[in-house]
Design goal:
Two copies of one chain form a homodimer. By secondary structure, chain A is mainly alpha-helical. Chain A has a domain at 14-117: Winged helix-like DNA-binding domain superfamily/Winged helix DNA-binding domain (Arc Repressor Mutant, subunit A). Helix content of chain A is 66%, strand content 8%. Chain A starts with 6 loop residues before the first helix and ends with a helix. The first copy, chain A, binds a DNA duplex through helix 4. Chains A, B: Keywords: DNA-binding, Transcription, Transcription regulation. Chains A, B: This is DNA-binding MarR family transcriptional regulator.
DNA sequence: CAAACTATATCAATCTTCGATGTAGTCGAC
DNA sequence: GTCGACTACATCGAAGATTGATATAGTTTG
């Protein structure tokens, strides 16, 4: 209580930070949607189209055609789901993973250069925040999953 | 020294966190580029097209037409720069600011709900990190500005 | 005041995205 | 087992966004 956590300020700080950290110039010819799809597949392993759809800000036909193009370009692999004849399992090829890794590496390098200009104290704060950010992301995922269960059940008050 | 700052891990944590925090479903019909332009204008006040261009991942013609549409929709104001007859000064209208504020408010609400599920200790770490994030963003801006000066000078080794 | 430069606008071609709809696979009740 | 309802993904045509090339107009410098 009263720990001085100013959400307003923190949100603004994150918004501004992502502008310089996440929106790197697209070194290759990829747009936001494409990069987001690649990142999600890199992080969450093989996914069905429908599951991938949930995290992306696209409608299904757009995602289908984006994935088709990525397959043609050799970045994504598509194979039938052995458990469900309707579904496709999507994953990255080695080449696809390489793109995600390269962007990630750019970010690490950029962050490294910035962190070098901080005080020791500031660096300590950052070190702790990685863990907290991960926790928050997990909590959000859990909340979403529960939300889905509830609305599927139609059993809540 | 040896403060356990793992940049690899921190970068991944930030990447994953922004997926749930920044890429909110576009409640309105705006795409990424549009939202980014609105955010930048909200934060950095009146800007010339060329200056706005620097922070956006778009080419100049695309930005011109995007801004034209935003003006038609009443979200952006365009007026001639009194200091330079070639340039236009872009800023948000009240309505444009309202959109940015609304997305920001959504984020604050979402963060608030997540933070409520953290321990006191975790909240304390977050409280400190707002300041550090802001510092990092400032440093990055300074670095960029210096980089531009240097390459304009063509005077470095 | 002419040449070189800068800021923005326009154009046609290409790529993205969308809503609507189609096809094929799955599931559960009987 | 087979009928009906549902789900996963694909296809299609239209609308919108983005691009490179280029045009126009204003500015600066010698």
């Amino acid at each position: 209580m009263g720990d001085g956590l100013d959400l307003e300020r923190l949100t603004t700080a994150i918004e501004d930070f992502t502008t310089i950290f996440i929106r790197l110039p697209a070194v290759q010819r990829f747009n936001f949607s494409t990069l987001s799809v690649l990142h999600t597949l890199a992080r969450r392993g093989p996914l069905r189209l429908t599951d991938l759809l949930k995290t992306e800000q696209l409608k299904q036909p757009a995602l289908t055609s984006l994935v088709a193009k990525l397959e043609q370009d050799g970045l994504v692999r598509r194979r039938p789901d052995p458990r469900d004849g309707r579904a496709m399992l999507l994953s990255l090829t080695r080449q696809g993973r390489e793109i995600v890794r390269s962007r990630h590496a750019h970010r690490v390098a950029k962050l490294s250069q910035l962190v070098a200009q901080l005080t020791d104290e500031e660096r300590e704060v950052l070190a702790g925040s990685a863990q907290v950010l991960t926790r928050i992301t997990e909590i959000a995922a859990t909340n979403d999953a529960e939300g889905n269960r509830r609305s599927a059940d139609r059993a809540d008050t």
